[in-house]
TrEMBL record:
GO biological process: one example: intracellular manganese ion homeostasis
The protein's name in its UniProt record: Uncharacterized protein
An annotated GO cellular component: endomembrane system
Keyword hit for Ligase: no
InterPro entries for this protein: Ccc1_fam (IPR008217)
Keywords: Membrane, Transmembrane, Transmembrane helix
Superkingdom in the source lineage: Archaea
Protein's UniProt keywords contain Hydrolase: no
Localisation per UniProt entry: Endomembrane system
Length: 87
């Protein structure tokens, strides 16, 4: 069951992180053409999106009422870390 929690967190985190970052880079580049603005945006979104997705997966796993607290926190932490590093 623990491997399933990690797999859930990693797959959700990496997918969400990549899509969000690609959208941000495209939008900022089209609007500003500034490398500094793009780097600032990526750093900001890395933190905000990682926290948002981790909280979302935590609430989702908790609401299923079929996971242990350890499994829930493993999904939460793995989502946060994967989302942060996929930015």
């Amino acid at each position: 069951m623990m491997k399933e929690s990690l797999r859930t967190g990693f797959s959700f985190g990496i997918t969400s992180g990549m899509i969000t970052t690609l959208g941000l880079i495209t939008g900022l580049h089209a609007g500003t053409h500034s490398k500094t603005v793009i780097i600032g945006g990526i750093l900001t979104i890395a933190i905000a999106d990682a926290f948002s997705d981790a909280l979302g997966i935590h609430v989702s796993e908790e609401s299923e009422c079929k996971h242990t607290p350890k499994e829930i926190w493993m999904s939460t932490i793995s989502t946060f870390l994967q989302n942060s590093f996929s930015q």
